[in-house]
Amino acid sequence: MSAPVLEVEDLRVRLRTPRGPADVVNGLSYSVGAGETVAVVGESGSGKSVSVLALLGLLPQGVATVTGRALLQGEDLLTMQPERLRQVRGPGAGMVFQDPMTSLNPVLTIGRQLVEGIRAHTDLDKAAARRRAADLLGEVGLPDPAGTLDRYPHELSGGMRQRVIIAIALSNSPALLIADEATTALDVTVQAQIIDLVEGLQAERGMGVVWITHDLGVVAGIADRVLVMYGGRCVEDGTVDDVLENPSHPYTRGLLGALPDLAQPAVDGVVPDLATVPGVPPAPTDLPKGCVFWPRCPVRGDARCETEQPPLAIIGSSDVALPHRAATWCTESPARAGSTAVSGTFGTGSPGTSGIESPRGRLR
Ligand code: SF4
Questions:
Q1: For residue 344, is pLDDT > 60?
Q2: How far apart are CA 285 and CA 203, in angstroms?
Q3: What does the similarity note say (predicted)?
Q4: Nearest CA to ligand 1 atom 7
């Protein structure tokens, strides 16, 4: 494997809130290689977006306390001076957010926004930066790149605006692209186009990509590796095949089990209810003692579940470059038992419909 572009070690984020300190990210560690895509998945509030905002120094000052290490091409983002961090954002790491309309300034033309970003990190003059901006718009597949430079964000569709955001993120040839729910606000067809676009650009440029999403369909389509977050912690990680074919943590199994099964036949014209993960994620101001998932876990049974946080431990072979790991005390997971069945113990409105084989099949 190539040298990591990004190495995150024991990242912790604590926010000051009116309800007291909120431990939003609790000891996150992962790395991203050149040309590799790591998907970070989890429900809203799991800490996945805060974790990347913390890396780039984008959390409000005085509210967030960030500790750990985050080496971007060998330089620690968390100890950088603000001026250096500003220089690194762009050539080091580009970011694409969920809502392209709020990421763009509505009163500036697309050209002005692109040209400003390019000139902030290069010594190109205005005319050369404008030519570079038009080239970038062409690269991200926008028709009439030169004409688009003179248009305002509201004159473009959502998919076109997201292409502009990707062009801005790529304008300084970053080594790392962070996409935070980058396709969530788009319809399914445009989502697929944006994913194809990022994959194509990644193959050309060899960027590392961190893709933050709650959408397991996106994960199946784009990721090399997956990191599942819950309560600010990584509860399972591994290659995309390991995690989607042999989910080991009860939470991952619950997420996969909650996907609609399009192959499931209707019974007497009634489509079976979806399985759910009952309960709600814990408040970061009041995380449970022990395993962070225990209040919702349908298979808790180990005496340590409610008292000791399980470590992220290797499952199966440790003799591989990227071992499959999960943080759970339970030993009867499908992966450990050598089966691909998803646990049938999560809630479902239709008894008898909860056990499924090959969960990844639902994502194709
Ligand atoms: S440690 Fe216990 S409560 Fe936590 S996921 Fe495993 S079985 Fe469930």
A1: no
A2: 41
A3: Belongs to the ABC transporter superfamily.
A4: 300
